[in-house]
Structures are given as structure tokens and as C-alpha cells.
Amino acid sequence: MLAREALRDFVDGAISDARNAGRMIAVLVIGLKRTDRLAALLGPAPDRVIDEVVAVLLPALRRDDRLVRLSDEKLCMILPGLRVEAQASLAANKAATLLDAPVEVDGAQISVRPVIGISLFPDHGNTAEMLVVNADIAERIARSRDLSQYFFHQDDHSDFHAYLGLDAALREALRANQLEVHYQPKINLATGNCNSVEGLLRWNASGHGHIPPGVIIRLAEASGLIGALTTWIANTIVRHQGEWRRSGIDISSSINLSTINLADSDLPDVFGQIIGTWRADPTLITLEITESSTIGDEEHSLAVLRRLKELGIKLSVDDFGTGYSSLSYVKRFPLDELKIDRLFVQHMLNSATDQAIVRSVLDLARNFNLSVVAEGVEDAGTLEALQQMGCHYAQGFHISRAIPPAALLEWIERWNRR
Prior knowledge:
eight-stranded mixed barrel; 16 helices; 22% strand
């Protein structure tokens, strides 16, 4: 096993060799989850657990591979001399398989759940520091999305600042009620009126400016704040619904859920309590999920969604058509609505393929008695085409960007008077 102090020298040397030989290097950051909470509290110390994990992994390494302990919860594996990217994925699969069985420490059976982030030379960096940092970002993303492994992508680097201390700032913003929810209107294409919106999170972080919603969610997932954040968002949206109702208008509102939310068996109880607290109409609440959000444990997710439906809440699939098994998803899950991904909507006037996809989603929805929302409507021609095709709802910049709650009722009144 390589000492941490020697990590940089080893990787930089491997990079030099890889350049000369035209080969690749993979850096894997392996994060460990203690899945048994009681064992995590009362069982062996973390350093004893990771020592045993190292003992399990070392015999599986090739002669030139190296393993480095980064902390009591993370290891780094360096795989030099690779010919293709698939070799890195196979190595990650092998490590995950070896750690699938509980490790024995001081007579106790300890379950660990490896989460592996992968970066590659030369695609993701040309120094030891860049490769390890990018593999760590990939591990955090894999953890937040409940994936066993994840390859770093260059687009992920724009989120790097989210891992440099903003978790504490988010915790404080949540405590001090410094977050906001803005609303993007959706219009009913049959009537032309607006009576539904999607709630979108906003955070103007001190010293960082406006943080993209996707970064906030991934940060909350990685730092264990996603449950509290989702509860705050849901409470805020349902409270606003009550205020709008007292002003004489019922507005249906959509709330986005993350993968980790669906893994929480208490989620239906949380929403039941929110509905009771604000005396809300649950049929005015729509929860948006993605097709990929249930891949981790589909049966558990299905049970959670059924309990939410029993409360009277509606369920929608966001970004529909981009997932791994769209038809199977519609067949199995208790859905009310499909949202056509903006990638298909934005170019449908100029792309016969995209237009065929939109028509196929509409046909599928009619067969299953589901409503359809088209996202990404950015011009009048697209809006008119969707109306002629029988789409139910539309949202996008042509209609309105997300606006603060204080301005929403005035916008709706103005729009509905058109």
C-alpha cells in the first residue's frame, strides 16, 4: 500500500510513462458508507474498518496498481497502463463485488457500501492533483445520485465550488430562512389560462452569487441536507398555496424530488404532516421525479410513491424520454403526468425526429390517461404546434421565466386577461 505522501510522486511518474506509451491512467476514489447505523455507532472504530477493507482489496490489485488511504472513509486506487476506459469500470465493479459481503472486524460483521468516482488521464487531468480532485468530485456525485460508480465529466467541474465549504453556508441559509422559491408558470393549452406552476429553488449565497439549483441539490444530497431542504421547499410552496387561495385563486404547484428523497421511507409521513399543518388540498400538489431516480431500489421507490398517491398527491415524471426504460416506467408507476424533456421540444419545428418523439409521448399518455407538459417552449410557433397536437400544458421562456411569489398573482391575472 502506498503512503499518502508518495501519492503525487507516483501518479506524476505514471503520467510520464503513460504519455510515452500512449496509455491511460485511472484514479478511483472509493468512498465507504456504513449501511448499518447501529454498527456505525457502537461497532469497531472507523480506522479498524478501513484497515480491513484495505486487506480485502490489496490482493486484487495488479503489480503496478497502488492503493492509498485518504481518510477513515475514503481510499484512492491508481491504475496505470490502461488501454481502454472500460478497464477502469471493470476494476470498479471488481472492488464493489469484493466489498459486497460484510467485512469482519473484531468479531463483528460490518457492512460497507462502496461508492466509486473515476477520473482518467489524459481526459480529466494531467497532474496527480487534478486527477484525484476530479475523482473525488465524481465520488461525491455518485453518492448524491445513489450510483455505485460515476466517471467524471468536464461539465462536472463547474460544480467544484459546491464542494469547497458551501455545505456549511447552505446549512446556515436553511436555518436562517435565506433560501427562496420562485415559480415558473404552466399554461393550459385547452383554455389558454394559467392555473399551475413549478416551484424552483433560488439561493443568492454571500460571496458566491446565485448558485444554480442543480448544484444546490447535489450539495444538499452530498452533505446530508436533502431531507431538510425538501421539507423546507414543500412547506414554503404549500404555505404560498394557502396565501393564494385566500386571495381567491387555487394554483396547482409542482415540487421536484431527488433520488435520495425516494429512498426515504418517511417521505409520505412528512408530506402528510405538511398537508395537515397548512390544511392544504393535496390534489393541488404534484411531485416531479425523474426516470433515473428509482433505479437504485425500484420496489422501495414504488412503495413510497404509492403511499404518496394515497394522500391524494399527483405524480409527474420530469425529463420524460431521456431515461432508461420509459414504457416500463409508465406501466409500473402510479403516474398522473409526463413532462416532455426540453431537448425534444426546443427543436421540434425543425426536426422530424424530435416532432415524432413528442407525438409518441402524447400518444402514450393518451393510452394511459395521463396529462402531458411540454418543457422548453421558447417561441410562438412551438406553442401553437403543441396546441394542435393535443398537448395539455406548456412551460418555457416564451411564456415566462420563474418569477418571485409576490409577483405571481399579478402575472397570472395579466396572462388570463389576454
